Amino acid sequence: MAMKQACVITVTSVKGGTGKTLNVLNIAGLYSTIDKKVLIIDLDLYTGSIACALNIENDKDLFLLVSDMNNNKFDYLENYFIKYNDNIDVLVAPKDPRDASKISAKHLNVILHKAKMKYDVILVDTNHMLTEHNLVVFDNSDYILYFLSNNPLDIKNMKTMTSIFRDMEM
User: Fold this and answer.
1) Which of 42, 114, 148, 167 is deepest in the core (most CB within 10 A)?
2) Which residue did the predictor score with more confidence, 128 or 9?
3) Are the CB atoms for 38 and 89 separated by under 8 Å?
């Protein structure tokens, strides 16, 4: 019998200021109102704003989780999530942006695999760069919501991203 796994929705863009974070929070709120268990992962590692937008203290973060995984101190995934309400948990970006470069993308596969068993929906807020972290999350996503403006540079970059997304389908 197949186990039910979370739907992973990644929100991305080729530039900042397109409303990724706001839309992640709104989508989480919508799922929460229909009693779905939601995990928000703030993968904007250098400037993560989910914790600030939700006004939560980030005493636990993605860097601590990865550090504990590397040092065999990891126990339960839930120990690294911050509970926002009954239906929404958050895995925040590192408090110190210097820790962002210490997070290996290889850990994201493990984190997503484990989290898929515990939630109905996983929402990932990415940064606007095409990093290894984002590519790993794209590969693990059921849906990718791509935000852009009508700026000519956005449209040009969207064409590039479209070809990358096509290659991922194979």
Assistant:
1) 42
2) 9
3) yes
